[in-house]
Amino acid sequence: MITTTVTFLVSYSLDETFRFVADFRNLVHWGDRVTDANPIFFQNDYNLPIYELFYAFGPFKLKTNYETKEWKQNSRMIMETNNSFIDLRDIYTFQNSEKGTKITFTNHSKLKFPYNLLEWFFDSGIRERIYREMRQLQNCLYESGSKAPKHFQVIRI
Fold first, then answer.
1. pTM beyond 0.90
2. Could you tell me whether strands 34-40 and 2-10 are parallel, antiparallel, or unpaired per DSSP bridges?
3. Digit-coded pLDDT (tens) for 75-127
4. How far apart are CA 106 and CA 89, in angstroms?
5. Alpha-carbon distance 97 to 108, whole Å?
6. Which of 17, 66, 95, 106 has the maximal Cβ count within 10 Å?
7. In what order do the strands lie in the sheet with 100-111?
8. Which structural domain, as residue segments, surrounds residue 101?
9. How far is CA 29 from the centre of its chain?
10. 122 falls within a domain
């Protein structure tokens, strides 16, 4: 399993930050290769949102469902998706800061057989995609001219 954790500050309020991140239609602004995200209204046992995501890989599009597993307003979200290649679990936590909002993002990526035999090969590419996405999310939620520091820390597990 490949686990990556990053933490960063944004200048938006806790409420605005959570609202933006929790609405996965906004993923098209910061998700790598995400071309479209549509809610599928509450089709799980917990009455939590599921989103249908479309990724572009050249002329090809991949569709996957991104399902909410945990939802604590303005505090924490856990989202999961899987396909024949990989299982993903994304954990977003949000904290008030005197200089904005602190987001901690942890991704657990588990490659499926036979791809797991080459996990060492995919490891750096997965981490780089996560760093790129989280920096873009930070840019989306950072007001120009803000006095808040643009802190970004990578924590490898």
1. no
2. unpaired
3. 999 999 888 888 999 999 999 988 889 999 999 999 888 878 888 888 888 88
4. 8
5. 26
6. 17
7. 34-40, 50-57, 60-72, 76-82, 86-97, 100-111, 2-10, 152-156
8. 2-23+69-156
9. 12
10. yes
In a domain, 17, yes or no: yes
Q: Which two tokens stand for residue 44?
A: 């799980």
Give the separation between CA 112 and CA 89, rounded to whole angstroms: 14
**Does residue 90 belong to any structural domain of this protein?**
yes
pLDDT for res 145: 66
Q: Report the domain count for the chain.
A: 1
Task: Give me the residues paired with residue 52 across strands.
Answer: 38, 65
**DSSP 8-state secondary structure symbol assigned to residue 84:** S
Contacts by 112-117 with C-beta closer than 8 Å and gap 24+? 112/84, 112/85, 112/86, 112/87, 115/85, 115/86
